[in-house]
Amino acid sequence: MEFFLIPIALAAGYVLSSLRVLNQYERGVMFFLGRYTDTKGPGLLFVPLLLARMKRVSMRVVALDIPAQDVITRDNISVKVNAVLYFRVADPMLAIIEIQDYLYATGQLAQTTLLSVLGQVELDELLQDRRKVNDLLRQILDERTDFWGVEISAVEIKDVQLPEGMRRAIAKQAEAERERRAKVINAQGELQASETLAQAARMLSSQPASLQLRYLQTVTEIAAENNSTTIFPVPIEMLSAFFRRADDSVAAPTPAGAGLPPAAKPGALGPPSPAEALPQIRFAPEKTPDDAGVQASGDSAKT
């Protein structure tokens, strides 16, 4: 009886040692006597001991950090760039058969591709259009790793380190750009304000009632303020007539003695003043005795 228990125990041990369990995110690449047979998983698998072997491959996305690289851009500016690479195994069989270590190989390829691609772009494009550079890196890496069964999900440039002098130059450029935008916005605001004022002036000049209403509103606002100013409202018609007469006198010059406007002439707006009503009296100079003698001798000489 014991003779039969030993083979059974050995067989049971062989079977148990040949069992493998794969997780949901894992796949097993099967080799039987050194030859690829199949890709299996997940779940419980039987891998005959000493006859077959299995290589586990994770199907999850891997985040691989790319160390900082010294790059010279197309416009001959030296920068230091580091990035992160996201990829996953799409074909476990190729990832095991075609490449010895797909993790190491993908990382090295990402470094060399980063150097070659960034050397073909300018600094402004690298700083302002980083999404385009990321897409270009992902496309190139995905084409090269397709033979390894590796799929590149994304490439993201994390940091771009510039020299100190270049950072100061970029800061000055940004400040100048902000000042330019502020001046443009200020000029546009002044232009809009002047256009609005001109439109309001045209509307008020075409509608005298609106001008009168605005005049009354201004008087009301000034009177409502807490001050000691005394306001005497003057009708708009009188001011308009005064301004028209003043404009006429300036536009049409008159001869000497008639330069005053009609409103300033005596008696134009009312009775004459007391000074104007007095008669014009001329006083002769008083004669001295000497002057009388001189005049008498002159008269006798004439006779």
SSE blueprint:
Elements: H1 2-17, E1 19-22, E2 26-32, E3 35-40, E4 43-46, E5 52-58, E6 62-72, E7 78-89, H2 92-97, H3 102-118, H4 123-128, H5 130-145, E8 150-161, H6 164-206, H7 208-224, H8 236-251, H9 274-277, H10 289-302
Antiparallel strand pairs: 1-4, 2-3, 2-5, 6-7, 7-8
Helix pairs in contact: 3-5, 6-7
Give a brief description.
With 303 residues, this protein is an alpha+beta fold.
Low-pLDDT stretches: 256-260, 262-303
The rough form would be described as: elongated
Strand order of the largest sheet: 3-2-5
> Roughly how much helix do the residues carry, as a percent range?
40-55%
Strand content: 15-25%
Radius of gyration: 53 Å
Main structural class: alpha+beta
CATH superfamily of the domain at 62-167: Band 7 domain
- Main beta sheet: 3 strands, antiparallel
Order of helices and strands: HEEEEEEEHHHHEHHHHH
Number of DSSP-assigned strands: 8
The CATH C-level name of the domain at 62-167 is Alpha Beta
Cα-to-Cα separation, first versus last residue? 201 Å
CATH T-level fold name of the domain at 62-167: Tetrahydropterin Synthase, Chain A
Mean of all residue-level pLDDT scores: 78
| Reported CATH architecture of the domain at 62-167 | 2-Layer Sandwich
Specify the number of helices: 10
